Amino acid sequence: MKLRTPVKERMDSFLNSMELTIEKGKFLIFRQKILDKVKFSQLLNDSMNEIFKGYILENPHSFNVGRYDSIDLKYTLRMDESAGSETQNLQADVQFMFNFEE
């Protein structure tokens, strides 16, 4: 008989195994990493929970986009190679929301 991994344990494992890298560039030349293998657990934003406040870019990773200017962002999403077997066959829909200040 195969025991199933509890849902919370699978969710925690998923959040701590998925890593996001974002690189900033111009004209598809990327020279600056603004996020480098940041775990999903660090990116969560839940207004009902003080632990999950999202991720705020601090200097030197914060940036300005001038009026009439543009930037290119490249996102790389990967699972940490040390992820446990409890994440096998797991399907997830992920949505990213970016808040910009004017």
Keywords for this entry:
single chain, 102 residues, three-stranded antiparallel beta sheet, 2 helices, 15% helix
How are the SSEs ordered, and which strands pair?
Elements: H1 7-17, E1 18-26, E2 29-39, H2 40-43, E3 72-79
Antiparallel strand pairs: 1-2, 1-3
**Counted beta strands:** 3
From the structure provided, what is the oligomeric state, counting identical versus distinct chains?
Answer: single chain
Rg, rounded, reads: 17 Å
Helix content: 10-25%
Instruction: Tally the helices.
Output: 2
Label the overall shape: elongated
**Ends distance:** 57 Å
Summed over residues and divided by their number, the pLDDT gives a mean of 78
Sheet bearing the most strands, described? 3 strands, antiparallel
Structural class: alpha+beta
* Percentage beta strand: 25-35%
Low-confidence segments: none
Kindly report the spatial arrangement of strands forming the biggest sheet.
2-1-3
Task: Give the ordered list of helices and strands.
Answer: HEEHE
Structure, described:
With 102 residues, the protein is of the alpha+beta class. It has a domain at 7-59 and 70-79. Helix content is 15%, strand content 27%. It has a three-stranded antiparallel β-sheet. The longest helix is centred in the first third of the chain and has 11 residues, at 7-17. It starts with 6 loop residues before the first helix and ends in a 23-residue tail after the last strand. The model has no long low-confidence stretch (mean pLDDT 78).
